[in-house]
Known about the structure:
Elements: E1 6-7, H1 8-15, H2 19-27, E2 34-36, E3 39-42, H3 44-58, H4 63-76, H5 78-124
Antiparallel strand pairs: 1-3, 2-3
Amino acid sequence: MSDTRLTFKEMCARFDVTPRTLRYYEYIELLQPDREGRSRFFGSREVARMTLIMRGRKFGIKLEDIRQWLLIYEHEGTQAQMQAFIEMADRQYEELTEQRAQLDTAMQELKELRDETVELLEKSA
């Protein structure tokens, strides 16, 4: 990645997040932009971290788990981070599978109730 730095506004636009979200990620120390006066600049490290954060959020991974994952990389390296990611992904996959089953059940029940209501309406007409 180039040494180009993004402004706060550019970072929000690039990742399609609100300023509040970006400030929050900075507040909880997921991101550490360079500061020049009141301005913030995001270098390649922060862009890479934000890419990983957004990917984790897309899969429903909790911010605290993402934080731990990023810390592992900084302190223990790539191998430890990859192992931690596998464990995190396995847990999230199980959770999403359970949510999917619950959603499938709810959808089927809703369809059955709808169909029964249609039948009752047709019989009374």
